[in-house]
Write a structure and sequence with these properties.
Elements (H helix, E strand, L loop, with lengths): L1 E5 L13 H10 L4 E8 L12 H14 L5 E9 L5 H8 L6 E5 L2 E2 L2 E2 L11 H18 L5 E2 L18 H17 L3 E5 L1 H4 L9 H9 L5 E4 L12 H10 L4 E6 L2 E6 L2
Parallel strand pairs: 1-2, 2-3, 3-4, 4-7, 7-8, 8-9
Antiparallel strand pairs: 5-6, 10-11
Helix pairs in contact: 4-5, 5-7
This protein binds zinc ion (ZN) (2 copies).
């Protein structure tokens, strides 16, 4: 299996043990066929921006690819923080380097962090969720040079009253608009298994959202643990594949040089 959402010490919020070497060794131990590093590029993040020199990152990863040749496949990716005003800035990262995969994710709503529910200040949960979905839609309309949409319902993790406030049927039409938009642009959707690791009742997204993506014609699903430390690599992937099978997906996807490669689900 391939884990296409992995953070190393290049990301601000990652465990100090998450060096490239420790991650690759742990991935081999866990029997993963390949991993894609997707460190954060979060421009204009409130407080501290999460950015790094992509050229250095890629050349370090190129060395790693040589070191681990035949033991594990290693891919070069980034998790690009989407915000409606970041078109040019994000484009300068997505288009200029030799990378395999760009995961697009929203971590900031109305210039406020999702983390710790800060974006909810002065709003009801319903208003906060609508603002999140609206920023997601506006961000994708402004910038679409990414391959898969990360943890689409991550807002569930940051609600004061827990994920029960995120009732699928209430937000279905907003989500359908976003899914139609990414399907038209040949952008995939991610199953991010960290949802369960953080104690939610399902992965990101809810199975209903994956099912809606399929019903609307979407076929590109990437699989990521969002590991920030080596032991979380490949978390609950067997269960994620079973879920995809139960929703009649025959394949999941990895990306090589920004092109999808379909992996059959046995
Ligand atoms: Zn993320
Ligand atoms: Zn991540």
């Amino acid at each position: 299996m391939y884990d296409f959402h992995v953070h190393s010490v290049y990301s601000n919020d990652t465990h100090p043990f998450a060096t490239f070497i420790n991650i690759c060794d742990a991935a081999i131990e866990k029997g993963l066929k390949g991993i894609c590093f997707t460190d954060h590029i979060d421009i204009d993040y409130p407080g501290i921006e999460d950015i790094f020199d992509l050229k250095d990152y890629c050349s370090e990863l190129n060395c790693l690819i040589k070191i681990y040749d035949k033991r594990i496949e290693i891919y070069k990716g980034i998790e690009l923080g989407l915000q409606p005003h970041l078109k040019q800035e994000n484009k300068s990262y997505s288009s200029n380097y030799d990378i395999d995969f760009v995961l697009g994710s929203v971590h900031v709503v109305g210039k406020k962090e999702l983390y710790k529910g800060i974006f909810l200040e002065g709003k009801t949960e319903h208003e906060g969720i609508l603002d999140y979905l609206d920023d997601l839609r506006l961000s994708i309309n402004a910038f679409d040079d990414f391959d898969s949409l990360g943890h689409i319902d991550v807002v569930r993790r940051y609600l004061n009253n827990g994920e029960n406030s995120f009732i699928y049927s209430i937000y279905k039409d907003y989500i359908a608009d976003i899914l139609e938009c990414i399907i038209n642009k040949n952008i995939g959707i991610e199953i991010n298994t960290s949802g369960k690791r953080y104690g939610l009742r399902s992965f990101h997204p809810y199975p209903e959202i994956l099912s809606l993506y399929k019903d609307l014609g979407g076929e590109i699903v990437t699989l990521g643990s969002d590991a920030h430390k080596p032991q979380d690599l490949g978390y609950a992937f067997d269960e994620a594949l079973e879920l995809l099978k139960s929703l009649n997906f025959k394949y999941y996807c990895i990306f090589k040089r920004r092109k999808p490669v379909f992996i059959k689900i046995d």
